[in-house]
Amino acid sequence: MANYLAQFQAIKNTSDRLVVAVEDVSDLWPSVKEGLEKRLPLKKASLNNKTRNPVYVENLQAEFILTTDSRLRSRFPQEQYLFWFREPYATIVLVSCEDLDEFKTILKPRLKLIVQNEEREWFIVFVSKAHPNNDQATKNAKKVYARLEVDFNTRKRERCCKLDLNGVDASFWEDFDFKIVESIRNTLDRRAQFYEEEIRKMSEQRLMPVWNFCNFFILKESLAFMFEMAHLHEDSLREYDELELCYIETVSTPGKQRDFGGLEHGDDQAALLKPGFKPLSQIVQDDSFREFEFRQYLFARQVKLLFRLGRPLEVVMRGYSFIISFSKTLALHENTLPFCLREVWVISACLAIISSTSSTYDGLAAPDNEKEFYRLHGDLYSLCRIKFMRLAYLIGYGVEIEKSPVNSASLSMLPWPKPSIWPAVPEDASAKVLAKEKLILQANPRMKHFNIQRKQLPLEPSSLLREANRRRASLSVGNLSELIDYRQIDGSGIDGHQKFSPSTTNSMSRTYSGPNLESSLSLDRPMRISEVHVAAEHALENTVTDPDLLKSLSSLEEFEQKYMELTKGAADNYHHSWWKRHGVALDGEIAALCFKHGNYDLAAKSYEKVCALYAGEGWQDLLAEVLPNLAECQKILNDQAGYLSSCVRLLSLEDGLFLAKERQAFQLEVVRLAHSEMKHPVPLDVSSLITFSGNPGPPLQLCDGDPGTLPVTVWSGFPDDITLESLSLTLTNTLNTDEGVKTIKSSDAHILKPGRNVIKLDVPPQKPGSYVLGVLTGQIGNLRFRSHNFSKGGPQDNDDFMSYEKPTRPVLKVLKPRTLVDISAAVSSALLMNELQWLGLIVKPIDYSLKGSLLSIDTGPGLMIDESHTIDINEYAKTMEDKVHAHDSNTITENNTHPLEPKQLYIENGKIALPDWASDTSTTLWFPVHAIDDRMARAASADSPHRQNMVDGMRTIALKLEFGAFRNQIFERTIAVHFTDPFYVTTRVANKCNDGTLLLQATIHSQVKATLCLYDAWLDLQAGFVHVRKENGRPVSSFFPLVISPSSTAGILFSICIDNMAIAADQNEVVQAESILNVMYGISGDRSNGAHSPTSLKLGSSDKLFFKVAIALQRPILDPCIAVGFVPFSSNCLRVGQLINMKWRVERLKDLEASPSSSCKDEVLYEVDANPEIWMIAGRTMGHALLSNARGSRTEITVTCMPLVSGHVRPPQLGLPAMDDANISCNPPGPHLVCVLPPTLSSSYCIPA
Amino acid sequence: MIACVAVVGHQNNPLYLQSFTGADDALKLHHIVHCSLDVIDERVNNPKRSVITLNESYLGLLYPTESYKVYGYLSNTKVKFLVVTTDLDVKDTDIRSFFRRFHAAYVDAVSNPFHVPGKKIISRIFAVRVSGIVKAFAPGTYG
């Protein structure tokens, strides 16, 4: 059956559509042909697919062929059977007859004969030629057609239809189409079933020796082809898929060694899209096909169907995996294939798939599919690129290929081609060898920028030289060591490592090449690398038939052009897909080539993309590889800002990625640029290089208004010391964001050491709140840098959730305004007036140092500080202890405090500087004051005690404490200090003796919280009084000393009498108006309690103090000249609203002449004083009453008045304004209070007379 | 043979990368691992495309090329584990088992209180443990 292969191929090529046979019984074809062929292609056909499910096919192509046509006649029955798919799928029988008899006798038997073949799907088209006007003819035709229907239609199926040549009925064509499609469907089903049955039978024999793949193939492909003709592409594709599976299974069964193929001219170009590339008959191998061609054929068939199905994406998908798997297959057969055929084939296959699909993809598919499509295109380009680079490397362009991670990753793990024998150097190739050597020598590998010394990444899985020589037939591994010529070419880039080549064990890391070796080759001598290249090039020229590829490999320029094209293709496609990283990485390769060609602008742009990708995801190792290149581009382009930024980024990469020397070079560049003549200052973010944070530990706490010094830890990533011209930091108030940020500056130049530095910044007074560090800015030359981050460590631009949830630690806390210090008076009780006293002030710092503070004291009026004395200072707590101690021992002592603590201070200009030791403890300051009161103390009458006004003894003292680090804090307070006399004195006449002696009692009330001790007291009497018995006015001397405890009283009695004599005698002298009580006393008190001995005296000494009290003594009334008496009321009781007469009787006791003070004549002036709210006075309240000057004359003054309120009320008083009170007896005149009753109950206020 | 193992953080930042090729060419492995993240991203973002359901940590073969293969594994915290192997014929179960051990080692390493999450793993013990796992890896060793 394999013999039919050629024929089968020819049939396939000629028949591409379904055939419908036309049995023209009545020679009608010419007249109906046109009408019938108009129906083609069939608009809509419902066919069944392989699984018998209906499928609607549109525009089904078909062809009418007469059964008399040679194409249908000249077939052998066996052929018909074999190539059944090309046989007619329906048979149309065209008949026409107008005579019933003729039909019965002639036509019917003939038709029976035609349709008896069971395998045919047929139907009869009865053509009526009858003109519609010709009734007879029409009638006959109808009769015949009716007969025809009876004869040929069955119950199941109608097989007849009638076509009127004159006037076609539209329903006919529908009927016609239906019948054709029905026939085709039935035929198709039957044939598919037949083929399947055959295939099944054949499949069962798969493992038998009779098995022949070609036969199977013909059957299978016939079925596939039939489906394809019927537009059932899906089914057809499935057949091919099955066929492929079956083939691979056949091929992979061990057993016969088969030819693989691929040795013919032109095989290096993939025939993935050309199913007819080679006739199948040419690739027959025994009972099967050669794999190389056949698999490509199958794939080409599949692709064709996929395109028909409109699935370019699937073409690419299948294409890529086919190329990969086929490449593996090629690798298995590599030793029989021409040199590098595998690589060349992959290149052409990839390009073929790309070119066929890139135009077909319309981009209307789902975005996901589109991305996938582009990704696959990128993969194809990338694969093609790798293979192309491999070829280029073999022929010596390797030195020009960038040794980037991308290229290294793709090439260094890709094994070398494994030809059975490595190609030998052709004859007369010495010129080429020399040229290659020159190329190798001249291609000085680009020095990395900044003199970065880095071992170059390998582009080869193992040393090419070694591999090539190892595979040469004449050399054995044993004499390999003879190869070694220690003349090495530095950085020739052919360094190789045998990492993945298990066959090589010892590593050769150098290239061995000697230009002075003889160029003529002997078989024994190992090849030099240039010779390997020449040999490879020669071999490739034999392998490659594609002129484009040959051209691309012909020169370095052509190679680079093609390389660029492929790289760009891959990158662009990856950019359109999900695989952005692939695209960007390839952009780096494009940039490298651009750079090489001096296209720095493009190179910089591409490098920036690459750097952004690596930096964004923290792939610092990769970044370290690319960033120097970007920096170099920017340097060449004079992009100073970019260059600076790149240098800084280089510096901020992890330690260990660059050597110290290299990092120093980066720093030098930064410093050089920063101090060069840049036109504008360049702002730069150095967050990754210079980082900062507050000092560990609690934040600096400042009180409101205090300036401070904030230590900030700054980490420098520079490898050497670097000088910063200025440095400033922003502080952000975390509590109050409205305030914005405060900048604190340090204008000093700082030199940052590598690593940790602590920089102190002065903080001016800030508002209360908690502050965090914001941004660090500074300047290096013209470089203005900023740094944002808060803590050291972590990849830059890292917004890792763990780190950004970490709250930023406040570095500075400015507390809310509070009291920092308190000054209060140490003693609340009164001090002695007019004596030098210790005034105690407690200075109490409240968690705040008073170091260097200055206390200004401003005394108010009536108080002065005795500056001649020093000021005592001691610890407050100690004072308290002392006090306790003093109480215990009942002595007043001062404990010795620390000897270093100065206890004596001096006041200068009203200011006291507090000692340092007192800066943190509460202290008591004692300074001597003197309160002055010029007024003399006065004694009060015991009857109406008149205490000394407290305000009189009050003195104020204004204090102002300047403290804080810069004396910026001010505390002001005015303290009131109470001064008082030691005691006050009340007097009363204790007794009035008949002899005129008065006992004057002076009661002494202690006013101080100290024990007073009276040593002496005497009374200097005023004029008019004398001491009884003319004594010196002292009480009994044994009386003294008299001790008065605090707040207690003591009394002294003086007996005095009125000096009648003195009145006249001293009349003209300046008489002492007041008596004075002189008291000599001592005081024993503690200054921490209150009044104490004056400062000038030693504490506890018994020196005496002197105190004077004025006492006003009144002479008794001795010469009354008028007596006033109140006449009792006439009625017993007074009532509200009742008129009463109040009467006073005035009587003259003396003659008027005797009274020198009287100036009136015979009348007296009176005045009634009454409260108008209580009393209503009728008549005059003031007037003159007649009273003769003679002694004993009397008169009565009557005033009518009416009480207005009830109760005990003060009655109206009679006063005699013209008279001296001393001359009026019985004064006050009248009762103090009278009782007024409420008005009597009455309906009216009218009182009956 | 395993050429390289890597741990990549949830933001695609490298946490750990160790090459076992014995040569000074780790950079190319960095590149391979980095590019493989494209595939992981694609799978994670297009769950319907991926063959393996995302219920499973193991992502399977990411990256078949002619010369090496990259396998991936994704933890619940979106930490990626990758293995680059030059063995072109490795059983899925072996790789799965390898990844489970690798993941366990990682979990132990990051449980160290001194490890800062999101930062590179610098633990030497982890490195030793991973080397041990890699050495023990041979197709068919794990069930």
UniProtKB/TrEMBL annotation, chain B:
Protein's GO biological process: endoplasmic reticulum to Golgi vesicle-mediated transport
Superkingdom in the source lineage: Eukaryota
Pfam family, one: Sedlin_N
InterPro entries: Sedlin, TRAPPC2L
Gene Ontology annotations for the cellular component aspect, listed alphabetically: cytoplasm
Similarity remark: Belongs to the TRAPP small subunits family. Sedlin subfamily.
Name this protein carries in UniProt: Trafficking protein particle complex subunit 2-like protein
High-level lineage: Eukaryota, Viridiplantae, Streptophyta, Embryophyta, Tracheophyta
